[in-house]
Structures are given as C-alpha cells and as structure tokens.
C-alpha cells in the first residue's frame, strides 16, 4: 500500500516502512542500542531525503527505546541515577554537535565526516567487543567460571566527586559518566544516531558497569537524548515527518518487545558477540563505500 | 543538428522556405509573406498567425492526499484556422514544469584513497520537475534557434535559470544535474507522446510522479510549423496538499514546537501500548 509522506514529499510502501521499523526495534530490545545507525542508512536507501531520515529516525528511536525502558524498569535493570548523569552530559553534547553539523553542512563535507566517524568508531568498538566477548565465551566453556572481580580499579576510580550508583554496584566519580554522555551526545547529533552502540561498550569497559544494568540504562539515556534531538530538529529545520515516524514506530515497538524477550534468554557473552559482528558488518559496508569508486561522482543537494 | 531530417519532410518544406521568412514571434511586427501558398496575402499590419492554439487542461489543480501515487494530467486543445490546413501536419510540443529551486552539484575526487567532495557548483534555480512531450522527435520538428528562444528542451530550461556560477567549466556539473534528474524520473522527454488528430485536435497525457513538491506548476503548449513556433500558450497548474497531509504540513511549518511535542507524545504512547500489550500476551 503506497502512502504519501507530508514532510518528506515522497510516496513509499507502508509495509516496507513497518518492516524496517520492526527490524530496528528488534535490535533495540536485544542489544540496548537505539538502532539509529541502521534506520538512517536504510531510510536513505528507500529514497527518503537525508535530513528527514535523520530527524524522523530520532523520533522512531524514542518510541522503541521508551518501550524497551519500560520493560527494563519492570525487571529493575535500569540505573536511573547513572542514566541522569549520562543524560546531563548528553544534552550538552547534543547541542554542541548540532552546531558542528550545521558548520559541516555549509562546507559540503557532512557526508564524508559522518561516514568516517562511523567507520572509525564502529571499527574500534566492534573489534574490542569481539575480542573480549569471544575470550569470555571460550573461557566460560573450557573451565569453571573464573572468579571475576567486581571491576578493575584504574585511573577512573581516582577522580574526585564520587557518587554511589547502587543499581550498578559502583562508587565512582561523576566525571567519567558525564564525559561519556557528552561524547555520545556530540556523536549522536553529528552522526544522526542515538549513540547506544558507543555508550554500551563505554559503560561496560570504561565505567565497569555490570552488563545486566547496562542495556536498560543505555536505553533510558537514549530515549531522553533522542526526544531532545527530535524536538530540536522539528523546531530548527521542520524535518520530522510524523507519518513516516508512525509507520516506523508501529513496527519498532513490536520489534523492541520481541527483542527484549529474546535478550533475557540469551547469555550476555553471546549477545555481545552478536552485537560485535553487527557493528563490524555496518563498519565494513561503510568503509567500502568510501574506498570504492562511487557509481556517480556527482551528487545533488538542495540549496 | 538537422541532419536527420527525412527527405520527405525536406521536400515538403522546400517551396515554403523559398517563399520567404516565416511568421516572427513578436505580435507587432509585420509579415512579408504568409507561409501558406494558397492563402491570400493579408494587407492589415497586425497579422494574427494563420493558425492559433486553443488549449485546456483536464485539471488545473493537483491534490496531494495521503494515498497520492502520482497523477496524470491531460492537456488538450485544437488548432483554429481560417484556411484549410497545409499538407504538412502541424507540430505540437507540450512542456510541464515544477517550481524552481536552488541546487548544488558536487563532484567527488579521490583524496588519499577515499572519495571526497572536492568541487561544487551552485545552480541558482532549476525546475524540480520538467517534462517535454512532443508530437514527433524534437530534432525533426524544432529549430535549434527556436529551442533556445523558448527554452524548450531540458538543458535549456536549466541554463535559462542558472546563476552565480564560479567554476571555470560548469558544463560537467549542469550535465550531471540533467543526468541525475533524468535517472530519477524528474526530467523527461516523451517524443511522440502528443497525439494529433485530423491535423487539428491534439492531446497529451503527462504523468506526474509521486514525489511531487508543492507549488505553482505551469504547462506550455507550442504550435510549430517548419521548425518554428507560430503560437504558444501557458496554463498554470496548482499542486497542493489537502486534508490530513495539509494539516500536518501546516502544523510542522507554523507550530513546530507543538508538532515536535505531538510527535514525541505519539512515540511514547506507542511505546506504552506495545509494552502493555506484550505483558498481557505473555500472561494470557
């Protein structure tokens, strides 16, 4: 069934959009990522103008991550205190990132910077996660589960302004989570994503949070930052297409619930291997696009 | 290039060309001799063209609704004449163009192993949509000079409106614009899409794509003889969103904050409903 989108001004198949939303919602529930790094390129591919894809993607991420947060809240796997600290950094970072994005757009290099950021960040994170999670998987199979310390003590734990994060079992400085939130906020605005694929590993490896609360807390922060981003886009550039968002959301919320359900059954190491592989696949695809000769060396941009 | 003209057409045109200059476009200028051999010379100074266009549209408004998948506009008309028609059938060209917008064409080059946008040309205004339909191949029926004067073929429609170019050679950029828009179906030349009946009645069915932008479109109709435009007509077409589409669009533009909040509320309600529904399903 074809439907005309009022803001994007294109006609697309409604079922395609519902299916896209469903896939991305599944990722969201499974891994605690918003799925923005998937939905945005997929929307480009079906012919939605990039600015609208980015802004509407953010709106879709609100729905799927909010649905996910509710499921996690019920299972008490959200560290709300940590989430609020991350959020404070995230909103500052998002505002900063929007400024950088506008600057890049004026000089015509936004596409390049976005792709390069994707390749660098996804590559680093994907490789780190894959190595670590494969190691853990092998170790858990070969011998009795190793006695694991709660977390490693490093420079992170010597900073001032310590705060107790009960749900995570941490007593650390607020500086690292604030910085993580800020960095994710900047990247989220520049790359047009929620930033979960960066935040989840940062929480696990940098802050030392237990995997159990990482996903719920990440979703909490993503829902809030995406809501802020959606509103910014709607007000500053009128690029949120509500009709497009509704169709993506219908698929997305269902997918997120299924994902959360599956996620509870899979083991943490297996989940991390899967996420690592997914991150590397997207990274590889984008890297190829940069290196191979494009189909057309010319491109059009409005304005 | 008129090299491809068939011998038959040339032969038919020869006596007419020898008769003298054709009817000029400007209405005030007099005509030394009419192109019709049979017609008597008219002595009065403001000479109307011997053949005139009378045209109409099936619709002068296109409404974009939620299920809009493109539209078809019928442009029809007749050629009014006082004398019997000449032996050669008349040529009709119909163009439909959308609102003009500024566009930047960027070219990528390889820098340090990766492809980067290095050069760009901003074209001040190019129609978002442009279709040329004609009763015969354009090369055969349209004189290049007339094409330039009336800006009929797509490359001329763009150059007519281009401005503020600062790269030495802009040709590859304008060519790229044409090529990309042609590939995406926004620019089109439909030779033979105008049907002419009995040398008098004509009709053109112009398909408008689903990805139309809102705005003032216009249809131009040209009547040609011997490669020259002897009469033309312009009809406006209004393309606009209606119903829910229009309401949402207006809200997004005029009340962006409330529109944004509405989008967020919708997203959260959807999340809540899905969450509650799945819990109910799992229990049941």
Automatic annotation (TrEMBL), chain A:
KW Transmembrane (keyword) present: yes
One Pfam short name: TauE
Gene Ontology CC, one term: plasma membrane
Intracellular or extracellular location(s): Cell membrane; Membrane
Membrane spanning stretches: 12-39, 51-71, 83-104, 116-139, 170-193, 213-235, 242-264, 270-288
Main localization of the protein described in the UniProt heading: membrane
Domain of life of the native organism: Bacteria
Membrane-related topology note: Multi-pass membrane protein
Cell membrane among keywords: yes
Keywords associated with the record: Cell membrane, Membrane, Transmembrane, Transmembrane helix
Record-linked PANTHER family: MEMBRANE TRANSPORTER PROTEIN MJ0441-RELATED, MEMBRANE TRANSPORTER PROTEIN YTNM-RELATED
Family, per entry: Belongs to the 4-toluene sulfonate uptake permease (TSUP) (TC 2.A.102) family.
Protein known as: Probable membrane transporter protein
Species of provenance: Paracoccus salipaludis
TrEMBL record, chain B:
Region annotation Disordered: where it falls in the sequence: 21-42
Membrane spanning residue stretches: 257-278
Compositional bias (Pro residues): 32-42
Organism expressing this protein natively: Paracoccus salipaludis
Signal peptide: 1-23
Name of the protein in question: TIGR02186 family protein
Record's keyword terms, sorted: Membrane, Signal, Transmembrane, Transmembrane helix
Pfam families the record matches: Alph_Pro_TM
Signal keyword on record: yes
């Amino acid at each position: 069934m074809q439907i005309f989108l009022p803001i994007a001004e294109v006609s697309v198949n409604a079922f395609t959009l519902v299916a896209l939303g469903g896939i991305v919602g599944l990722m969201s529930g499974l891994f605690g990522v918003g799925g923005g790094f998937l939905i945005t390129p997929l929307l480009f591919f079906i012919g939605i103008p990039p600015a609208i894809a980015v802004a509407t993607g953010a709106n879709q991420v609100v729905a799927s991550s909010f649905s996910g947060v509710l499921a996690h809240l019920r299972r008490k796997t959200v560290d709300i205190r940590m989430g609020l600290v991350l959020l404070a950094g995230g909103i500052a970072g998002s505002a900063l990132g929007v400024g950088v994005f506008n600057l890049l757009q004026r000089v015509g290099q936004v596409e390049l910077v976005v792709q390069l950021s994707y390749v660098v960040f996804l590559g680093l994170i994907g490789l780190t996660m894959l190595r670590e999670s494969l190691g853990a998987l092998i170790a858990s199979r070969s011998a009795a589960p190793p006695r694991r310390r709660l977390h490693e003590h490093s420079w992170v734990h010597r900073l001032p302004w310590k705060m107790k994060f009960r749900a995570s079992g941490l007593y650390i400085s607020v500086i690292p989570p604030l910085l993580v939130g800020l960095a994710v906020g900047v990247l989220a605005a520049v790359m047009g994503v929620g930033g979960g694929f960066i935040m989840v590993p940062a929480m696990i490896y940098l802050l030392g949070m237990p995997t159990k609360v990482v996903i719920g807390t990440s979703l909490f922060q993503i829902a809030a930052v995406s809501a802020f981003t959606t509103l910014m886009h709607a007000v500053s550039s009128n690029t949120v297409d509500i009709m497009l968002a509704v169709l993506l959301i219908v698929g997305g919320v269902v997918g997120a619930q299924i994902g959360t359900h599956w996620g509870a059954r899979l083991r943490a190491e297996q989940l991390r291997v899967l996420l690592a592989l997914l991150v590397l696949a997207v990274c590889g695809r984008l890297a190829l696009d940069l290196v191979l000769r494009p189909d057309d060396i010319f491109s059009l941009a409005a304005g | 290039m008129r090299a491809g003209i068939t011998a038959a057409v040339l032969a038919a045109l020869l006596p007419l060309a020898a008769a003298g200059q054709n009817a000029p476009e400007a209405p005030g200028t007099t005509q030394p001799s009419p192109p019709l051999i049979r017609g008597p010379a008219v002595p009065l100074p403001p000479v109307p063209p011997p053949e005139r266009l009378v045209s109409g549209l099936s619709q002068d408004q296109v409404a974009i609704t939620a299920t809009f998948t493109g539209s078809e506009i019928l442009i029809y008309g007749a050629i009014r004449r006082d004398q019997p028609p000449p032996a050669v059938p008349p040529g009709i060209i119909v163009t439909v163009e959308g609102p003009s917008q500024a566009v930047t064409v960027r070219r990528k080059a390889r820098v340090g192993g990766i492809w980067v946008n290095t050069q760009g040309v901003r074209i001040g205004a190019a129609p978002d949509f442009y279709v040329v339909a004609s009763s015969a191949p354009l090369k055969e029926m349209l004189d290049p000079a007339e094409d330039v004067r009336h800006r009929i073929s797509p490359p001329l429609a763009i150059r007519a409106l281009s401005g503020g170019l600062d790269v030495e050679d802009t040709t590859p950029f304008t060519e790229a614009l044409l090529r990309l828009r042609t590939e995406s179906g926004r620019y089109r030349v439909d030779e033979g899409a105008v049907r002419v009946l009995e040398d008098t009645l004509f009709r053109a069915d112009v398909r408008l794509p689903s990805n139309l932008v809102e705005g003032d479109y216009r249809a131009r109709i040209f009547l040609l003889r011997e490669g020259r435009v002897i009469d033309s007509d312009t009809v406006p077409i209004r393309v606009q969103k209606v119903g829910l589409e229009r309401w949402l669009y207006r809200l997004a533009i005029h009340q962006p904050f409330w529109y944004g909040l509405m989008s967020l509320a919708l997203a959260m309600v959807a999340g809540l409903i899905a969450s509650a529904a799945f819990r109910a399903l799992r229990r049941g």
